[in-house]
Amino acid sequence: MFQENSARGHFAMTSPSQTAVTKTDTPGLGPDSATSKKGKNGALAGRSPGQLMWARFKRDRTGVISAFIVLSFFALGAFAPLISKFYGKDPWTRYGQTTPGLLVNQYPAGPNGGISSDFWFGLEPGLGRDVFMQLLYGIRNTLGLAVAVTIVSVLTAIVLGVAAGYFGGRTDYFIGRLIDLLMAFPNQLFYVAFVPVVTAIFVAPEDEIPFWMRCTILILVLWFLGWMSLARLLRGQVLSLREREFIEAAKISGASPWRIIRRELVPNVMTPILVQTTYMLPNFVTSIAGLSFLGVGLVEPTPDWGRMFANAADYYHNDITYLFFPGVAMVLFIVAFNLLGDSVRDAFDPKRAR
Amino acid sequence: MLRFLVRRSLGAIVILLLISAFTFFLFFAAPRDPALLACGRNCGPDALAIIHKNMGLDQPVPVQYWHFMAGIFTGRDFAQGPCPAPCFGYSFATGDAVWNTIVDRFPITLSLTIGAAAVFLFVGLATGMLAAWKQGTLLDKLFSSASLVLSSMQIYFIGPIVLTLLVYNTNLLGQPKYVPITEDPVGWFMGLLIPWCVLSIIFTAQYTRMARSAMIEQLQEEHVRTARAKGMSAATVFFRYAWRGSLIPIVTIFGIDLGTLFGGAMITEVTFALPGLGTLSIESVLRTDLPTVMGVMLFAATFIILFNIIVDAAYALIDPRVRLA
Amino acid sequence: MRRAQAAIVALTAGALALTACSSGAKQGAADDQSRKDAEKMRGQIAFADAAASKGPAAPIPGATPGGTIKVYQRDTYAHLDPAQLYVSDQGSLSTLLFRRLTAFNLDNKGKYNVVGDLATDSGQKSDGGKTWTYKLKDGVKFEDGKPITSTDLRHTFERQFADFITSGPTYVQRWLADSNSTAGYRKLLPGGPYGGKHLPKSVLDTPDDKTIVFHFKKPVGDLPYALALAGYGVVEKAKDTKEKYDKAPVASGPYKIQPGSFKNGKGITLVKNTQWDPNTDISRHQYADKFDIQFSVSYIDSTQRLMADNTDNQTAISFNNQVDAASLQRVANDPKIKARSTSGYQPYVGVMNFNMRRLKDKRIREAIAYAMPIQSVLDAYGTPGGGELAGSYISPTLTGYKNIDPYGKLKNPLGDVAKAKAILKKAGKLGMKLTYAHNTAVEPLKYSVAVADNLKKAGFDVQNKELPSDTYYDIIGKTDNQFDVYPSAWGADWPSALTVLPPVYDGRQIQDGGTNYALYNSPETNKEIDRISQETDPKKAAADWFTLGEKILKDDLPQIPTFYYKQVQLHGSKIGGAVNNNILSAIDPTKLYVKK
Signal sequence span per UniProt (chain B) (predicted)? Predict the structure, then answer.
């Protein structure tokens, strides 16, 4: 959300101007763009669409580098405990408070936020924890949540989008109105307003909120307004695929709707799903970080990427180094992911390559 | 056209009703007593009961919802005094009429949005079209790469850096603040300059990318190619025909962005401590101040829906191929 | 083209790296001045006679009239009705707006006393302290020019019993009704004076236009202090609009509210009250023409603005915003900024409560006390200057204060985890479940990480519970709360331990919404509280209070003190007369002027 304008992608599609607008960030639709079909027709002899895409992607050096960076972030997150072991520190110990001389009046005694061979990214002002470890575990938690929201949202979008497109009629109407309704929600305000409310519904004020519960609530709230754009896109795709001969053929041969959806429709919309997913995930990452920045995300002592920015807001006047590492990591991650998204799209749809 | 407007307005009202009901009932499902907020330190059970009554919290939730919705159109009477329509009730936390608070805070959000929008629309279009015009040159590469990096920035990251560079370390500019334009136009401008720039950095970058690709697409359109084939110079084609076509999708998105931003640019307002609608909403959320949250939620949703309708209508006016069913 | 993108990424990163360089922190000099001020204040606040209560106030040397002072405030004033005023920001505001029967006066030499404000003196006591008589000064008026009479004052006190008055002090009402509970005193005059009912003459008497007599059932020694509280500011009877008075009160002090200027979250403007006569007022001045108060300016913001001291901010100040915790070290290390700062104690003592109904074994409470990292708690409020580590329940600003440290917390402020663990092991309670609750304000969120960490290391199974900050005290104030350890802070309402020990440690006052948060009930302590409350010699009472506090801490340990609150405030370079007032625990607003 907290790119202030993330709502836009969704709303663009509520308008009749759909195609014109969405062209900028989705592969072209319609009869001439089903790339995968060309492979099936044998025009490009004997290679599956996946192989084709992979071959194109491998040639795109920026894409490969971005993919490498993105994957390293996920690897860093996944192996954070292992790295912690090698590095010899953890994200919870208050080194600065327990070891005299590291912090003076709450701030790192050494220059540049207390960066040293012991503390690679310096120390957190106040509590004196290790910034490198905080960031690593923060990335781990944020990416974990973002992946979870993305998976749930994509699954919802597939189910509802394909159902609306394939069954049409009343199903389509109701799903369409539901999407209209959800898209009119001011999504920033919704996230901020409903994380505490949903929490209060599930947890009595006297009880500690378990970690898994906090995560579930965050996922739930982000999912609630996170699936519509992809669903609407898939609906459009399926609507046009529905009229195609191979679906007709499947119908005549007596295949059940479920089989048609599973075997014929979904494989044919994998391209937009994959491309949209690469745009959704970084959006969820910034949304989760934004929630933490505004004080309604994960809480202490769980390390959290976005909360580091909220902490930094207190300290940056006197120790800007502390803001630096989470900030640069965030920019690097988002840039890499956006580049990766472009490359994936180009690889799927070579006609659109710039 | 008229039928379209009527139909969409009716749809909008239904959506607003649903949003308000959803918000209202979810908030009341949360077991927190908003009256505790309004009750002071010496709040006994008697005083609490009075506040419950004053706030109308002693009635069943659906009745409360009905009173709330009716109040928007007809006004209500509270212990604090009559609340003329449109009445969103009184804040649980401050005791102020919610509508007055919104009217008070909105100019700040409006100033922030309009200024930023002017910057990002103008700069974004200019750079994007220039990049398309000079497609493939160094300039194009420069603009495109810069926009890629800048659009990945986060306000809570660059905001503090810009403040450190321009305000705290060098004193080049003052701390961002809001002064009404009617009081002091120069102060208004200077006070919002940094928030405008920071907020528009992200948008500008995206408009650059959008304008560039829309323009390139236009240049491949048939009527443009025909014009070119007829012997018009590249510049004439570019400035007379192509740019107009490329504006359509951008205007659409611009309208939608404006609608969203009018509801409050939360992160920007919090980062620069501007007391607009965004700050108001986070404040009231953290204080369980339901009437204010409801007010801001409906206010923001209205803008989103309104601008969607405007955009669709405008689109139909510009492009005859789109029919308003 | 993608290569160019990579180059730009690298360039941006480089630029960012440059801005991120910073030097290390420096040790700031300790601030001893506030300690000396506090010592000066202890035990010397006298009740002034008529001669010492006569206006006008001695002029501030060098002060000139005129100019507008800009005031940055974090919080919107929650109330403007004098009877609803209680907390510190309201205290500062009410000093400028509303007069009371008595007032705390800080003279130019730094001495405090209690003077007659509307009254000619600080009060005449008779009948062994059961009857107090006040005479009004001549020439005291409301902002509309109407004279202030005993009818207005009767109304001022009678409306304190109305149900809509819930936020102000309750001392005088409770003394009049001889009631100990928050609900009980209202029975004396249910609904207040609005139904035409009044307090009987035997309780509150106004024999003529200028005289008010209070009759109490038991001797009351501290009445002149209590009447000086912001909550007892005078209300004009003819203009009382009940709940609505909270939005438009009638001023009686040197300033009044510019009509329509109050906007929640934005600000309020105070202008000179021309009906205020300086010759009737010993404790206030009227130098500035206008106070332009802005709300919603965070501590960080006001600190940054006042540190910058550019043209906009040279005539700016904040009544109640402090230097934010993160900037204290810069203020301490920059002599130019430090010269524009004022500092002092606040009356609050921070404590960690032990729920006495759940933690019955004193050894467990001891273990927690030893493990408590009070330095981390203080750090969250900022060093140097945010406070001072505490060894006792009674603040250094109170008469009778002595430096004690029965649990060695001052020597080992980061907590002695090993010792705590040993005690817990001896008690056979290693691994016991312990619920630690705290609210979600910035500081508790920070220090709670350290608190929970230490308790865990000491061998507790810590359940860390976050409570919403706006209703935190309501939740921990429930007698059946399910928490074991929770922080709170209590401050004296006036410099006497009478406003500290009875509200916090009297077991008979345990009730929902009460202030005995530890639910501590010891018959011995209760008896001692009763005895000292009746003590007429203030010096002896002060010493006895302190001894009792020390005994509770050593023998029963219902709470472990963490730190004494302090504050540092800044003002612009063109502001004159900036001094800290320990009674307001903030800068004194009536002495301010704009330097020419």
Answer: none
Per-residue pLDDT of C539-562, as tens digits, reads 788 889 999 999 999 999 999 999
How far the first Cα of chain C sits from its last, in Å, is: 61
Question: If residue B54 lies in a helix (H) or strand (E), which one and from where to where?
Answer: helix B45-55
A324 and chain C: CB distance < 8 Å anywhere?
yes
Does CATH number 3.40.190.10 belong to domain C42-290+573-594?
A: yes
Q: Which residue has the tokens 């005059």?
A: C189
**Does the CB of A271 have a partner CB in chain B at under 8 Å?**
no
Q: Which residues of C are less than 8 Å from B288 in CB distance?
A: 468, 470
User: Could you tell me which residues are beta bridge partners of residue C294?
Assistant: C72, C267
Task: Give the end-to-end CA distance of chain A in Å, rounded to a whole number.
Answer: 28
Tokens of C556: 């029963």
Top pLDDT among B313 and C226 is at: C226
The CATH class given to the C344-567 domain equals alpha beta
Residue B281 structure tokens = 């909403």
Q: What is the mean pLDDT of residues C315-343?
A: 90
Question: Please, which residues 88-107 of chain B have a Cβ atom closer than 8 Å to chain C?
Answer: 91, 93-96, 101, 104-105
Q: Closest approach of chain C CAs to the CA of B200, in angstroms?
A: 18
pLDDT of residue C455: 93
- C431 with C461: CB under 8 angstroms? yes
The residues, ordered by sequence, that sit 6+ positions from C459 with a Cβ below 8 Å of its Cβ are C367, C420, C421, C424, C425, C429, C430, C431, C432
Q: Contact partners of A by the rule of 3+ C-beta pairs under 8 A? A: B, C
pLDDT average, residue stretch A270-295: 87
Mean pLDDT, to the nearest integer, of B60-89? 78
User: What pLDDT shows up at residue A28?
Assistant: 38
Domain ranges of chain C: 42-290+573-594, 344-567
Angle, helices C417-426 vs C362-371, to 10°: value is 170
Produce one character per residue of C307-340: b if its CB has 16 or more CB atoms within 10 Å, e if not. Answer: bbbeebbbbbbbbbbbbbbbbbbbbbbeeebbeb
Q: Give dist(CA B162, CA B159) in Å, integer.
A: 5
Would you say C503 and C396 are in contact if contact means Cβ atoms under 8 Å apart?
no
Give which of B182, B188, B193, B189 is closest to B272, Cα–Cα: B193
Distance (Å, whole) CA A110 – CA A35: 58
What is the C-alpha to C-alpha distance for residues C378 and C343, in angstroms, rounded to an integer?
A: 16
pLDDT at C283 over 90: yes
Q: Do residues A273 and A211 lie in contact, with contact meaning Cβ atoms separated by under 8 Å?
A: no
Nearest to A321 among C20, C324, C442 (CB): C20
The DSSP symbol for C119 reads B
B152 at A interface, C-beta within 8 A: yes
A37 falls in which pLDDT band (50, 70, 90)? very low
Q: What 3-state class would DSSP assign to C397?
A: coil
Nearest CA to C140 out of C92, C100, C93 is that of: C100
Q: Tens of pLDDT along A91-109? A: 888 888 888 778 877 888 8
Nearest CB to A109; choose among C21, C24, C463: C24
Helix (H, G, I), strand (E, B) or coil at C581: strand
The pLDDT value given to residue A30: 38
**pLDDT score of A45 more than 70:** no
Q: Decide: helix, strand or coil at residue B208.
A: helix
> Could you give the CA distance from residue A39 to residue A182 in angstroms, rounded to a whole number?
38
User: Mean per-residue pLDDT for A138-156?
Assistant: 94
- Prediction ipTM score: 0.82
What value, to the nearest 5°, has the Cα angle with vertex B257 and ends B252 and B258?
100
Band the pLDDT of C288: cuts 50, 70, 90. very high
Q: Is B301 on the interface with A (CB under 8 A)?
A: yes
